[in-house]
Design a protein that fits this description.
alpha/beta; Spore Coat Polysaccharide Biosynthesis Protein SpsA, Chain A; 7 strands
């Protein structure tokens, strides 16, 4: 079996980090876990110290808050595995779905797999306007990339080492999602979508993405279509 590199951007997730890491460790694949702290201020760094020096772990720290995209770039640069999985630290996405996510790559059909929250998997019922906003951004992205994704903004993106070695990313915050999509489409990598479960949080539980990130995503969709 190929080795997995699980890249986990972390920002102020003191209450969920241990549980998330336990779920990742329980998945029965050969793997390394790369934790990148984006200058947390809630005690998350104290939790991360528990994983320093442990076998198959890398713990990396930013000296200031730079954003999810920047944390992912830091993690991608340290990967040694054959397949990279982006894993948020907030328990919204369940590592039990790794088997479903990996199947199209392992059987040779795909270079990139998106885990879609809108293909029929179980999900927590939350924000209608977030759902509409996501559908709008996905549709707009599809218009410029000529893809037929249902969930461009998903946090579950899985891809091969070849994809990671071929692409360079620029966005520091949540603009990473449309940037990643534009670049894998431009490079004509084989893309699959699979259904995943989703346990979304509300803002009182620590959800971080806001309407400002939605407007920024629109800019990035145009930016990476016309400006590169």
């Amino acid at each position: 079996m190929p080795t997995l590199s699980i890249v986990v951007p972390v920002y102020n997730e003191r209450d969920t980090l241990r549980a998330l890491v336990s779920k990742v460790e329980a998945v029965d694949y050969e793997k390394e876990i790369i934790l990148i702290d984006d200058f947390s201020t809630d005690g998350t760094r104290d939790v991360l110290k528990e994983y320093e020096g442990r076998e198959n772990f890398q713990v990396l720290y930013h000296d200031r808050n730079k954003g999810k995209g920047a944390a992912l770039r830091t993690g991608f640069s340290k990967t040694r595995g054959d397949i990279i999985i982006i894993q948020d630290a907030d328990l919204e996405y369940n590592p039990a779905d790794y088997g479903t996510l990996l199947e199209p790559i392992l059987d040779g059909r795909a270079d990139v797999v998106y885990g879609s929250r809108f293909l029929g998997g179980p999900h927590r019922v939350l924000f209608y306007w977030h759902y509409l906003g996501n559908k709008f951004l996905t549709t707009l992205s599809n218009m410029f990339t000529n893809l037929n994704l249902t969930d461009m903004e998903t946090g579950y993106k899985v891809f091969t080492k070849k994809v990671n070695d071929s692409l360079a990313f620029k966005c520091n915050r949540f603009g990473f999602e449309p940037e990643f999509t534009a670049k894998v489409a431009k490079n004509k990598f084989r893309i699959y979508e699979v259904p995943i479960s989703y346990s979304g949080r509300d803002y009182s539980e620590g959800k971080k993405i806001t309407w400002k990130d939605g407007f920024a995503a629109i800019w990035h969709i145009f930016r990476f279509r016309f400006l590169g």
